[in-house]
């Protein structure tokens, strides 16, 4: 399917690996020019070369912490008029809520709620004036199904979703959509890191833990960054202009609900 976004300009935050990279690849395949972002400059440059070589699109790599004002300025300077914004950022590490102090909580909210809102504030009026904009927030299934130790991440991401529920409806008439995609268990470094911690704690092998966790998913497997990215790319397409304010679960059926 032609997504109708060839030549559009996209910012993809935290896109040197994982779900961000999967999304960047899908948008590149659709013909978008990209600004990619991450904190590992060497890795980011490798990804930039790979994307340009594979898809023949323009790629600008910005090594910066997107949670900081300076990082946001660098990214927006590289693409001051984006048509597409993919908000993505790492979350706080697993931690018992009793161990969270004020600074940790503030930083978690900055990472997973304030930063996406700040970026949207910067780009949404320009999108509205040009009468095309697609904003995707990569959050987590944990906003619906709590995960032990990720209370701060879940709370901040849920706050973002609630914050944008009204915002998205203010700009929909300008062909600007704002949606969130809620990943479940995807084959990423973050998931593997959880397996490693569990193995250290229980003495089980990584293979055993991986097999048990995969069986919990009705699909019988973990998702891939590639299929995640393709879903995001469709939501950025000309065909998705009537989809806004939605929180789309990608979890292989793990979250059990009729509605």
Fold topology:
Blueprint: E1 9-12, H1 18-29, E2 33-38, H2 41-55, E3 59-63, H3 69-78, E4 84-87, H4 102-130, E5 133-138, H5 151-171, E6 176-183, H6 189-202, H7 206-216, H8 225-235, E7 247-250
Parallel strand pairs: 1-2, 1-4, 2-3, 4-5, 5-6, 6-7
Helix pairs in contact: 1-2, 1-8, 4-5
For the secondary structure, the number of strands is 7
- The level of helicity is 40-55%
The name of the CATH superfamily of the largest domain reads: NAD(P)-binding Rossmann-like Domain
Q: Sheet bearing the most strands, described?
A: 7 strands, parallel
According to CATH, what is the topology of the largest domain? Rossmann fold
Account of the 3D structure:
- There is one protein chain.
- By secondary structure, this protein is of the alpha/beta class.
- 47% of the residues lie in helices and 14% in strands.
- It is built from eight helices and seven strands.
- It has helices at residues 18-29, 41-55, 69-78, 102-130, 151-171, 189-202, 206-216, 225-235, and strands spanning 9-12, 33-38, 59-63, 84-87, 133-138, 176-183, 247-250.
- Helix 1 runs parallel beside helix 2 (41-55).
- The longest helix is centred in the middle third of the chain and has 29 residues, at 102-130.
- The chain is globular, with a radius of gyration of 18 Å.
Feature tags:
2 domains; alpha/beta; 259 residues; globular; 7-stranded parallel β-sheet; Rossmann fold
Summarize the structure.
The protein has 259 residues and is α/β, with parallel strands linked by helices. The chain contains eight helices and seven strands, in the order βαβαβαβαβαβαααβ.
């Amino acid at each position: 399917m032609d997504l109708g976004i060839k030549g559009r300009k996209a910012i993809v935050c935290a896109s040197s690996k994982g779900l961000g990279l999967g999304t960047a690849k899908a948008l590149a395949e659709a013909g978008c020019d990209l600004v990619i972002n991450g904190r590992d400059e060497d890795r980011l440059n490798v990804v930039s070369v790979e994307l340009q070589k594979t898809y023949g699109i323009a790629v600008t790599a910005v090594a910066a912490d997107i949670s900081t004002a300076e990082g946001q300025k660098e990214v927006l300077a590289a693409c001051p008029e984006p048509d597409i914004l993919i908000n993505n950022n790492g979350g706080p590490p697993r931690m018992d809520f009793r161990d969270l102090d004020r600074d940790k909580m503030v930083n978690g909210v900055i990472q997973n709620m304030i930063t996406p809102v700040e970026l949207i504030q910067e780009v949404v009026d320009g999108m509205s004036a040009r009468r095309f904009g697609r904003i995707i927030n990569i959050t987590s299934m944990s906003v619906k199904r709590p995960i032990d130790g990720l209370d701060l991440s879940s709370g901040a991401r849920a706050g973002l979703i609630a914050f944008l529920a009204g915002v998205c409806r203010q700009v929909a008439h300008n062909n600007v959509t704002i949606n969130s995609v809620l990943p479940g268990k995807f084959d990423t470094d973050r998931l593997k890191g959880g397996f490693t911690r569990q193995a250290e704690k229980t003495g089980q092998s990584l293979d055993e833990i991986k097999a048990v966790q995969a069986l919990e998913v009705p699909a019988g497997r973990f998702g891939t960054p590639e299929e995640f990215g393709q879903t995001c790319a469709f939501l950025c397409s000309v065909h998705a202009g009537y989809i806004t304010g939605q929180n789309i679960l990608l979890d292989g059926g793990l979250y059990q609900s009729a509605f």
